[in-house]
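We close this part of the discussion by returning to an individual protein. Part of our work consisted of pairing the sequence of a single chain with a tokenised description of its backbone. What the numbers capture is local backbone geometry rather than side-chain detail. The amino acid sequence and the backbone structure tokens for this protein are reproduced below.
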Amino acid sequence: MRIRPYEPRDRADVVDICIRTGDNGQDATGLHSSDALLADIYALPYVNHEPGLAFVVDNGERAVGYILGAADTRAFAEWFSSEWWPTVAGKYSSDGELERSIIASAENPERMLIAAVDEYPAHLHIDLLPEAQGQGLGRQLIETMAAALAERGIPGLHLVVGSGNTNAQAFYRRVGFTELASDAGGIAMGIKLA
């Protein structure tokens, strides 16, 4: 398996990976009225807005993992709110409490702005299918993203991980992230870049 830059041909794989890891690292297939909801919020906006900060793990046949990011979270949140979400929101109904919660989150660009956003302006999403886990590829993806952001002069990188996703929390700590803040929904973690 190798890490390479995202290419447009990876789009369907990115959607699949997002769905199959969208429930705190577990398969979210069938949890929402449309499986594409999670990808339209947490994956596709990134490959559309900043494809230069998208990298995939390629198993020789397809992408089986990715890291996606935005160098400037404030600018990304504004773009997401004004340009991206209005083009996809109409596909989704708010038929249920979980669905309403996810849609309400997507409609609020402030959700992306952690208190330390100026110190850690970039953010990421990373997901690996089970076949790509436990091989050091997650660490390599983080290092790849950190290097790309450092080349741009970005001082810090953050992410938010679900409160219940303890495996991911432990992984982020192992690769150098520290806790910045937490609430009932998740933990914001950040890392300084060279």
